[in-house]
Amino acid sequence: MAELHLRCQPSLGDDPAPDWRFSAQDMCRILNEIAFRLLEGRVAVGDSWTHEYDDGLARVTFQLDPPEDREDLEAFGTDAGATVLPVRWSLERTPRGPRTALTTEERARLRIQLKPLRDGSRSARIPGVWRSTGRASFDPSQRYGPRTPLVLARAGQIWSADEETLAGFLTLAFDVEMGGKAIWPAVVAASAGRPLGLDDAVEELRQDVIRTVGASHPGRTTDTWARTVDLLLGDDAADQLERDRFSDALTRLFADAFLSALAAEVLGEDAGTRVRLAGLGPWLSATLPEGTPPGTEWLASGEVIAAAERLVDGLAPLQRIAVAARHAISYEEDPEYARVVDMLMGWAVTSAACAPVISGTSRWWSSCLTSALTHRMRLSPDEVEVFARSAADLAPELLDLLHSPI
To answer: Which domain of life is it from (predicted)?
Structure first.
């Protein structure tokens, strides 16, 4: 049986990509996919194929080469007698461009955005690297580029949040992890920033997040973080070791979500809609009632909203209340239902999938519904059944709606 060998950085092509690599999870997934294709006869030695990453901003061309000596490949984890097939690859990205000044219009918009952000942060709690200083400058040569004042103001706002807001932010970041990755916007922002000369700004940002979050347990004060951990643990009994592990997991999640929100601000309008919604959605939603869109950009399409409203219009007022109540009870009592709802909420706050106010229903359930309709192709048949079952007798048309193209 042949073994496959893959390096985390490109072994072919003109771009050595010192700033771009596959993670251990990426490599495991890629090697498993190639192994299955090899066993099924869908790929053979000498074949090459291309795959897109970072939302289409990076193209990787793989090639499966003939067997080579395991020592030469440094494939020391393979059996001594194994045949080792190297999987080599090259990377194509948009060339790096120069940093440029913002337009007069964007500078004016940023000044309007900055005032409430600066007023809302308590500077005494903020590490020096995140503190805004003096008059806002939009000079492109700054550490995080021309939007540095907005990045610092957003960092200060998040860093100085109270435990309730922080717990809401982490809960939504967890929801995002259920159906994706909280770090995704930051990863894509690094690639999107290349032609703008801002990829190094995103890397500087990443290093600063690692240093500050790792050093102080994202937190402002130890007491704030401790209260946040207590809020999220709830009534679950945990000894100190379990609590410390939970706190460490939350710290990593905070770092990913914090970095993604700030990376979206580094690029601003140039980040693209998908990155901005995914990066800023969890934080902007954290201070709002469950299911409330953080802005009009997060609303589902008109067709999806109309379909949801037609379903609700067919319910009597008491039925609408009952649907919302069933939803809340099922979330607490049915782990399968809670998992699907968490995933739907993760998609809702990171894309255009939220519901507006729909008369007589909870925004939480409504946004789960519009998220399910928007992202229907990402749901398995079992997940559709799980989401529909809490309201099956009250809204029998729900399952048909979820199975109907919009």
So the answer is: Bacteria
Q: Please name which of 386, 381, 51, 343 lies closest in space to residue 180, comparing C-alpha atoms.
A: 343
Per-block mean pLDDT, blocks of 10 residues, the chain (406 long): 88 92 92 94 95 94 92 79 90 95 94 80 72 85 96 92 94 96 96 96 95 63 82 77 86 96 96 96 93 94 96 93 95 96 97 88 93 96 95 92 88
Q: What is the dihedral of CA 282, 250, 290, 380, to 10 degrees?
A: 80
Pairing of strands 58-64, 2-6: unpaired
Q: Which residues pair with 68 in a beta bridge?
A: 84
Structure-derived torsion over alpha carbons of residues 81, 87, 88, 93, reported in degrees to the nearest 10? -160
Q: What is the DSSP string of 126-168?
A: S-GGG---SS----TTSTT-TTHHHHHHHHHHHHT--HHHHHH
How far is residue 319's CA from residue 394's CA, in Å, rounded to a whole number?
Answer: 6
Contact criterion met (CB below 8 Å) for 280 and 155? no
Residue with tokens 């939220």, as numbered in its chain: 354
User: What is the distance between the alpha carbons of residues 356 and 354, in angstroms, rounded to a whole number?
Assistant: 7
Written as six digits, the tokens of 298 are: 């997060």
Question: What is this structure's pTM?
Answer: 0.90
Distant-in-sequence, close-in-space partners of 27: CB < 8 Å, separation ≥ 6: 6, 8
**Cα–Cα–Cα angle for 135, 195, 17, nearest 5°?**
115
Q: DSSP secondary structure string, 281-311?
A: HHHHHTTS-TT--SSGGGBPPHHHHHHHHHH
Specify the amino acid at residue 131: R
Crossing angle, helix 199-216 and helix 184-192, to 10 degrees? Answer: 150
Q: How would you classify the pairing of strands 58-64 and 83-93? A: antiparallel
**381-389 vs 363-374: helix axis angle to the nearest 10?**
160
